[in-house]
Design a protein that fits this description.
The structure is a homodimer. By secondary structure, chain A is α/β, with parallel strands linked by helices. Chain A is 48% helix and 16% strand. The interface between A and B is medium-sized, with 18 and 18 residues.
């Protein structure tokens, strides 16, 4: 399947009534430090605190009504779980969320707060998938994948669409890459709605599967996984990978120290809360500033769901 | 002297070109928790990260041009020092700042970053005043008091003026009280521009001089001083106290635990950075929610200058 301009436009109409139109902020200090004109699309202010609601909402609203009513299901301990739970409440159906038994209580409570039913499993991929399959078999709920799903990708594309509609003549857009839902949607929206803007991805060194996959031409896993950017641990999917190969110009990796430096800058200068995964694109910009000198750069702050008790470790 | 409606209007015209018109934000979660409709005037997004620029700017712009050119001086280790340094740079004059030798390096650097000249002194009131007097004698600079100054109070009043012009029919406004510059300006703006809104102050239990002063009818010092709200340690002045007595309806005290709870809420739900002194009014609202049930309440988030390395102690 090819996601067209029309698909993204229709998705935007579909999700608009249910999501926030998030603001685009600027900071003269960061412009000075980066030597570029930087525009931050603030999905940390989005419902559930992250862009994930866009893809989940589009996927669920695209289901036939009868299917919607049988409920929706996913496995996730992060922002996608909250997104699915929130969407289910908004459209009036049931959400079934499979979470590892090791999930932080604050995340479990957030999901439960939306009225979702939670199923705990052992913290490994096999157990997650088996438990999810059992839930789906028993309930008839529709599984919504966190990123490897065309309707999810199309929903995530609405974020960059809003950005380029508000800020004209961007030379570049940088978004984080985990499983690739946001970056592939971002690259599609740039391609259709702002073709002069080149799209780049930011990736943690401690989860560097995407940069490896682009090099080898097939989906790879990361050589090692250790980063504070806990939203970017997943590997690419067979639907996101080809879009990234075609439309993403380059992938920059950044260390956890660079991620923390970027977070410090955002907290101190912009006075807003962005999660480690969310500042990866800014860290990538600051690390590669010669390449973007004098340019107009859009940055997607993908989320703001920080575990506050970890701030003491970072700052 | 009586500060009139006209004074505040003129001050607003004077400072407007030099300050940010800060946004008023809302949070459905906090509305639900407070049982009220709450409007947050976000001075954490103001230049220098706090409302203090308003008063400093108005005071300096109100000086005769020749006086301005001799420079301006103050003693402060906090937001007022940055405000004076920033104003001096904007109007093209010199700033002389007396700071205790124990000031955190990050604050010293911020003041120096604006090009101010810094004079260190022993960390006590006597040394501050003596050093300041020496600087003023030597340079001919004008001393701008952080709060006990009519031009400063009038400048701070522009913050609540903007709030009530944007949000109609407020039933109440809550601002923090330290030396009383912001709260007295707030109460004057409410009186002139939104007379149905009653004005309340929030004060830390560990710097409870204002609540005591109101009770006794004269300026008192706090019984003990120990709070994380480091912007609110000062006592009232002979210019702020009478305005507070006349126009402020009540003063609520809050504990450091209540301040931290309010900060947590703002970081987690609003995804913005507010300093301990800045969330005192929200902590006061949440502690006294029966009194404000169903009302439209304006809250002044006075600043966002948090020392990030202290977040680990609080969360």
């Amino acid at each position: 399947m090819e996601i067209t301009r029309h698909h993204i436009q229709e998705a935007h109409k579909r999700v608009k009534p249910f999501i926030h139109h998030t603001p685009v902020l600027t900071s003269s200090t960061i412009n000075r430090l980066a030597g570029a004109e930087v525009f931050f699309k603030c999905e940390n202010f989005q419902k559930i605190g992250a862009f994930k609601i866009r893809g989940a909402m589009n996927a669920v609203l695209s289901l036939p009504k009868e299917k919607q009513q049988q409920g929706i299901a996913t496995h996730s301990s992060g922002n996608h779980a909250q997104a699915i739970a929130c969407v289910a409440r908004e459209v009036g159906t049931k959400a079934y969320i499979v979470m590892p038994s090791t999930s932080p209580p604050v995340k479990v409570e957030a999901v439960r707060g939306y009225g979702a039913e939670i199923f705990f499993c052992e913290p490994n991929q096999q157990a997650r998938e088996r438990t999810l399959q059992e839930v789906v078999d028993r309930t008839g709920a529709e599984f919504i994948h966190p990123y490897n799903d065309y309707a999810v990708i199309t929903g995530q594309a609405t974020c960059a669409k809003e950005l380029v509609e508000e800020i004209s003549s961007l030379d570049a857009i940088i978004a984080p890459v985990g499983g690739g839902g946001l970056i592939s949607g971002t690259s599609l929206s740039a391609h259709y709605f702002s073709p002069a803007a080149e799209v780049y991805a930011g990736e943690p060194e401690g989860a560097a599967d995407a940069v490896l996959s682009i090099k080898s031409g097939k989906i790879e896993t990361a050589p090692y996984v250790k980063t504070i950017a806990d939203g970017l641990l997943t590997t690419l999917g067979d639907k996101t990978f080809p879009i990234i190969c075609r439309f993403v110009k380059d992938i920059f990796t950044v260390s956890d120290e660079e991620i923390i430096e970027a977070m410090r800058l955002v907290f101190e200068r912009m006075k807003i809360v962005v999660e480690p995964s969310g500042v990866v694109p800014l860290a990538a910009l600051l690390k590669n500033r010669e390449q973007f000198a004098g340019k107009r750069v859009g940055i997607i702050f993908s989320g703001g769901n920080v575990e506050l008790k970890r701030l003491g470790e970072w700052f």
